[in-house]
Fold:
Amino acid sequence: MVKILIVISKPPSSRVVDGFYITLGIVGEVEVNIILIDDGVYCAIRGQKGLNMPSVEDCIYSLYPEARVYAYKSSLVSRGVEPIEIVEIVKTIDEDEALKLIRSSEVIINI
Structure:
């Protein structure tokens, strides 16, 4: 099975939600993981309500357990986002785990 990694580095927006929809469309056909880096970690914060767009939190839950969502710890720390603030099924990973995830992926899509 092909391994795809979707890298989200932008804050919640309709474009980011499209990335989650892409994942929903291909999950099951391929192995998909999402990593939230830089401002993308804001997508992992619980209870967000976007204007004229679906909840990113709902998108994350709709992927579980077929796809995994990871938040890069360094990005969380540098933005002051505490682990207790993020959706509980989003796993926080460090640099070594992020590199392992990247290296094991055959296709990487940046959103």
